[in-house]
Amino acid sequence: MVVDGHTSPAPDRLWRNPEPKSNYDVVIVGAGGHGLATAYYLARNHGVTDIAVLERGWLAGGNMARNTTIIRSNYLLDASAALYDHALRLWEELPEELDHEFQFSQCGVLNLAHTEQEARDARRRAFANELNGVDAEWLTPDEIAEVCPILDTSPRLRYPVLGATYQRRAGVAKHDLVAWALARKCDEMGVDFIQNCEVTGFVTAGDRVTGVHTNRGTIGAGRVGLAAAGRTSVLTDTLGISLPLQSHPLQAMASEILEPVHPCVVMSNHVHVYTSQAHKGELVLGAGIDTHNGYAQRGSVHVIENQLAAAVELFPIFGRAHLLRTWAGTVDVTPDASPIIGPTPYENLFVNCGWGTGGFKATPGAGWVFAHTIATGAPHPLNEPYGMERFTSGALIDEHGAAAVAH
Amino acid sequence: MLLIRCPWCGDRDEVEFRYGGQADVAYPTDPHELDDTEWGNFLFVRANPMGALTERWVHTAGCRRWFSVVRDTATNEMTPDIPQRRESR
After folding, report:
1. Residue A401: which pLDDT band, with cuts at 50, 70 and 90?
2. Which pLDDT tens digit goes with each residue over A152-190?
3. Could you report the per-residue pLDDT of A3-19, keeping only the tens digit for each?
């Protein structure tokens, strides 16, 4: 760690705050979780360290600061299970590797089923998980009550809990600490984080991008990786690249700090709410996107009302909790609810986008495959199915609903 | 919460409406002439601007008619773009 011992008694810095150089081997746009993980694995796996990560605000201040911290890999389709479970395996080794505590807790995730059809779909997903080597169990209401006693599993609910899938290896991690742990390691390996540096356009020469225009001047780039979440299509529009993305507000919220009552993560697709309890004690809740497009980082109140109604129905003891904060991020959603990770029509420009509501859980896995794609110029086997050409070929990775949360 | 002006019913709360996405997406005039890329773009690619977007809403809890408005996606400011022709129900 770099200590600024001459001028300030400030605590140790986790990363430097350098002036941008005129040129880098790799420029990554977006210092959120995915941008940080990409820089980390570029340096660690591929020996690329002449990297600038450009961030229009402050490091990890976008969706990384706004997510609900849930990590799981219980996806239905082979391509999804492979990508998300790769991420989960990386999560399991990262605390030691980064040598920085980020409160990764494998407390388990329950995905509730409230209708007969949902129960059939959930069991099918659990079987698919087992075939893909992802841990999965089907629990009856009595077994759910043992895992999460505060959940109302009685038949009196409007939509009673008929069962749930349970992934024990799933859990949560403290998002800010994850970002800081990655940033510290990247900084040690020589990566420059340039904050308050908004990319406004690209310098091109033929079918190559040779640099990025920013509010801090033009920065040359050998290769460029976009990890700008909801703003990706604003950037690609300037190059005439048509990405099938729609940016929506996604809201989340936290209660006052309570004693530990909630032992795991509970997600419900049908009544649509998901909840967990942070280490500090807040109940953290989320649900789906607002229907309309929006970049305002602000959603509509009725969306919050609906998910709180669902939460209080499922968890009667939440009825007396005070809601302390609500907020929204801007998420980029694709037509098949799966990300786009791969090359673009510009030879040295690569995109990692379209994660919709589910990007945080993928952070290390996305960084791993995106770093591979940028370093080698070709996708890693895990992100080969995730190219933008699938919207031409029709080989979609349709994870609507099967992703265990509605979009 | 958006306050949306239905051209027929006036200002109403967002919960009375459903969203229909980008307006004025025309069906291809000669579908047989489209190659796979053009079909993919027609099916999957829609405008996603940070700024003015002309979009469709339907007043599901009211007159049930479709209409277009121009909304700034960064500020949510809406300008009613009252259609000249009779809209489909």
Report:
1. low
2. 999 999 999 999 999 999 999 999 999 999 999 999 999
3. 444 554 444 689 999 99
Q: Which residues of A touch B44 (CB under 8 A)?
A: 244, 335, 391
DSSP output for A50-88: -EEEE-SSSTT-SGGGTS--EE----SSHHHHHHHHHHH
For residue A318, how many C-alpha atoms fall within 13 Å in the half-sphere facing its CB? 24
- Interface probe for A, chosen from B19, B44, B58, B77 (most Cβ of A below 10 Å), is B44
- Taking a contact as any Cβ pair under 8 Å apart, which residues of chain A between 278 and 307 contact chain B? 291-296, 298, 300-302
Task: Evaluate whether A338 touches A359 at the Cβ level (below 8 Å).
Answer: no
**Whether B44 and A335 lie within 8 Å, measured CB to CB:** yes
Q: Measure B32 CA to nearest chain A CA, in Å.
A: 16
pTM score of the predicted model:
0.95
- Tell me what pLDDT residue B81 has: 64
